[in-house]
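Materials and Methods. Structural model of sulfate adenylyltransferase. The 462-residue sequence of sulfate adenylyltransferase from Capsella rubella was retrieved and submitted for structure prediction as follows.
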Amino acid sequence: MSTVFPKPTSFISQPLTKPHKSDSITTSVSFPSNPRNRSLRTSRVRAGLIDPDGGKLLDLVVSEPRRREKKHEAADLPKVRLTAIDLQWMHVLSEGWASPLRGFMRESEFLQTLHFNLLNLDDGSVVNMSVPIVLAIDDQQKALIGESKRVALVGSDDNPIAILNDIEIYKHPKEERIARTWGTTVPGLPYVEEAITNAGNWLIGGDLEVLEPVKYNDGLDRFRLSPFELRKELEKRGADAVFAFQLRNPVHNGHALLMTDTRRRLLEMGYKNPILLLHPLGGFTKADDVPLSWRMKQHEKVLEDGVLDPETTVVSIFPSPMLYAGPTEVQWHAKARINAGANFYIVGRDPAGMGHPVEKRDLYDADHGKKVLSMAPGLERLNILPFRVAAYDKTQGKMAFFDPSRAQDFLFISGTKMRALAKNRENPPDGFMCPGGWKVLVDYYDSLTLAGSTRIPEKIPV
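The predicted structure was written out as tokens:
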């Protein structure tokens, strides 16, 4: 089942050429193979859904007739218990978001990802893969596995949920992994503290067989469409272009402007039915991010209030954890959407970034994410759409594209400011966010106050 949001918008900072009158469309895409040579490469983009990486979308869930047999097999195997984040990565792998990866990474795949941000395929081609998808075990688990070539992966209740075949166990170079993925080993990186620092000193990789589709039973499973299901929905809607927008924050009218403008530009190029994939991240996020359930409530209000068009928007949850690894991670976000059928990807300021955990600055340069995407190996088939800056236009009383010639007319409302207003139960300027969506955000922060204390919280500086 999919959900729809009103009309999409995105800012396109590089020119898009109009299509020729044929069954394919020509688009100018910046892809400098040499960073010193920024000439545009013209690529021909087929109208319709893009092929998945490696040419085949993987489904690693065991077919229903074989599940009982596989569960019996798993019962006799050494067991590895998964953490909540491990389960999220298993979910990602099982549905083919990381195709052509067939399971948790073996050492060769881990090293290619860590050092090259890609995987080499048997036919000599490469696909982008910028973040390691690995499973850590400790010394005791390694000893229990012994010489076995297979292990059962179990949940918190110790019931088997998957089998890992033809396993390989190798050292977990934590410091190198952190340094190469985040570009720093500074303390306070949320994902590192949650999933790496106290993880085992070994990694185990192999081919994955997931015994049943992953379900969370949190009332949101209907939004968790697999790449297969998304492709089916997009084909049902007759999409001839799919543009993806990832977010981990509530949708405001500036986001909607970006998405709507993108659709307008694609129509001008000659596409007949471009569809927006509004794709909130559903895995691990840091403590001060708005939780998924509240974000989904807010997104629903955005649709109900007509800010986005349900007929041209598919809303689905992307199951990946969030690493906050900036330009390295944004490549993963873009690559995964290829496997869901997207041939356009909207990227904004500081994608997958965060504030520096120690110093008062951003951890990454705000422009590096979009620049890296335009050069990343293995993403040549994906059209990257960097957007212009949106801000609140005080003269019009709405979100609009920033015009530097009249900068005094614009008000910038950051995510930090937005959260502060909601916590203080103060309203943003009219036109910043739809009223229903804003109420959800205020209700969320009210719920924190009620859960933690009856005392009214102190004002938060805006």
